[in-house]
Amino acid sequence: FAKQRGKQRVEQYDLAYDQWLHRRTDLEHELRGAVDRGELMLVYQPIVRLPEGRVTGVEALLRWHHPRLGTVPPDEFIPLAEEAGLINRLGAFVLHEACHQLSRWIVDGHDVHVAVNVSPRELHDPEYARRVADVLHGHRVPPERLVIEVTEHAVAQDVQQLVDRLTALRAAGVRVALDDFGSGYSSLGQLRTLPVDILKIDRTLVAPIGTGSARFAPPLADVVVQLGNRLGLDVVAEGITEVGQHRVLEEAGCRYAQGDLFGRPMPAERVEALFRAVEAPPRERDTELDESA
Ligand code: C2E
Ligand code: MG
Ligand code: MG
Ligand code: MG
């Protein structure tokens, strides 16, 4: 009986593995043509300045809508693109699209910046900063309007190469954000040596604020806010979903906030409606409407 159970388990495992492999192969194949078929688009999530809540910037987030596979989340297709050697193609699309959109917002007189995520893989390219500068120039966008977000996970790789790339970006006038800070990869010591302008606190540090688990220890986010401020960085708290979190972080001295409380990622024309508002106070969200164009 035990043997039979074991065999059954192996078969279940094989089945799960087969399904996983099948989806992976399918996704990879479809992803190769996704840019050319126009299946990729950017949505933008507002970043607000505290305490007044004005939208000072947006983060561009990539979306893939496939006719058969539906909407594939970036947490699934970005790692795949990295492994399949497609990330440079996707990254180039994101950069062009974001700069194109930013140039239109600038022409319309909106005083905003746009943040774009870069994969650690893309930073292997020694010409990365030059390519960014070229794209900015091509769209007549002043470099200081662009923020390049690099995940803290990149620090686990070649730190010297990372420092070189970020230094080159800043030399080109682009601002650099360290994304997902506190998710566990870099040390506090490394933060001091990394050439960054902005620190984005990972939402896993924000989530416990205002819940029972945070009652017994000072929220870690607090400590990170102080650290960032002491280093002269602009600190952005990610993933704020509740008014209580907003209040705690504001009191801790956090200058910028991002999260569903202030607005979910949304199409360009929806987010630009928020730019004009002097104040963008938290309000009730209709989540179903959010990413619809
Ligand atoms: P990220 O750069 O840390 O982006 C923030 C993620 O947190 C986004 O997920 C956003 O929708 C989500 N988020 C923001 N506020 C809240 C909140 O209040 N609650 C919850 N539950 N989630 C919130 P998204 O768009 O699914 O992207 C996931 C990750 O995929 C990004 O994390 C980034 O690492 C990667 N990614 C997205 N777009 C791109 C891209 O164009 N290029 C690259 N290389 N990576 C990208
Ligand atoms: Mg990001
Ligand atoms: Mg982030
Ligand atoms: Mg994150």
Automatic annotation (TrEMBL):
Keywords: Membrane, Transmembrane, Transmembrane helix. It comes from the Bacteria. The keyword Acetylation does not apply. Signal peptide: none annotated. Residues 24-279 form the EAL domain. This is GGDEF-domain containing protein. It comes from Planosporangium mesophilum. The chain holds residues 407 to 699 of 716 of the full protein.
